[in-house]
Amino acid sequence: MKVLLAVAERPERWHASFASLLPEAGIHRWPDDAPAEVDYALVWKPPPEVFRRVRVRRAIFNLGAGVDALLAVETLPPDVPVVRLEDAGMAAQMAEYAVLAVLREFRDADRYARAQREARWSPLERRDKRTFGVGILGAGVLARSVVRALAPFGFPLAAWSRSPHAVDGAESFAGASALPRFLARSRMAIALLPSTPGTRGLLDAAAFAALPAGAHVVNLGRGDLVVEADLVAALDGGHLGHATLDVFREEPLPASHPFWHHPGITITPHVSAVTLVAESAAQVAAKLRALERGLPVSGVVDRSKGY
Ligand code: NDP
Ligand code: OXD
Predict the structure, then answer these.
(1) CB-ligand 1 contact for 196 (6 Å cutoff)
(2) Which of 29, 137, 210, 263 is most exposed, with minimal Cβ within 10 Å?
(3) φ and ψ at 79, to 5 degrees?
(4) Are strands 2-6 and 26-29 parallel, antiparallel or unpaired?
(5) 222 lines ligand 1 (CB under 6 A)
(6) pLDDT per position as a tens digit, 27-68
(7) Is the pTM of this model over 0.90?
(8) Dihedral of CA 176/83/142/203: which sign?
(9) 270 among known catalytic residues
(10) Cα(65) to centroid(ligand 2), Å
(11) pLDDT tens-digit profile of 234-253?
(12) Which of the following is catalytic: 144, 200, 222, 242?
């Protein structure tokens, strides 16, 4: 069995992991050792040249959860299944990040930090948890992990998705028509959506206006979910209280970008859930073996939906 590995980051670690998990396979590295034909390709943000030079017969594994970058590669063969990472150690990381963001807001951690810097003793009134709705945009693998992690704190939770789902511990909203009602009850809105034609620019002036006054927006999905100018206008106009952003339209976020110095924006560099090589390689190797045995696998991307 021939496998092509095309990754720009940590190629040695990926190679070593796959070589030990799939000793029966020949693992070939892009670009120097790329054969003309392989059974499987294991890729993350591959250049278009990969699929021009290498024909993939069985499946393409995306070494990440989001497939927007891969689906945008114009040479991606249309008839080869694309399989994405599901959780692979990212769900627990997303849960940690979301809990941190929610508790930081709910317990006024930033306001107390500012007060300390000014040597100001100023106790704030306790917020009412019953009116502190937390809404998660998305009800997929990562969003559900966030719901599970937040559930013990007692915030009113809701999840919004494309199709209706029962999400344990959260009120469920589905479809574009339910979005305004979902936003109206979300004092914190946490985006865990993929970037697709249906989600790009979703968080715009209308969405921000639909959130309650003082709301906090957290974007952990993809940068292009947010209309940047609308976000800044909603923060500057005082309707939005804060934004916590882990993902951006352009990454790395350019040093000259106004987000860096905006007092209402907290930034992290796309680290809310990092890809863990060992866990991810183990998941991919197990699915690859299942495909070799003719068994179905989960995480096959529906290209018509874009995720
Ligand atoms: P899933 O595919 O499991 O979940 C996607 C969710 O988005 C589903 O619930 C889906 O609805 C919903 N959705 C998609 N389109 C729409 C729409 N138009 N309207 C409403 N809901 C929609 O993905 P994951 O949970 O595994 O990952 C989510 C995203 O997180 C990834 O695509 C990636 O962009 C991002 N990510 C970010 C990372 C980071 O470090 N910041 C790390 C890893 C991933 P339905 O259930 O009805 O299909
Ligand atoms: C992913 C990511 O999609 O790292 O896995 O953002």
Answers:
(1) yes
(2) 263
(3) -105, 10
(4) parallel
(5) yes
(6) 999 999 999 999 999 999 999 999 999 999 999 999 999 999
(7) yes
(8) negative
(9) yes
(10) 5
(11) 999 999 999 999 999 999 99
(12) 222
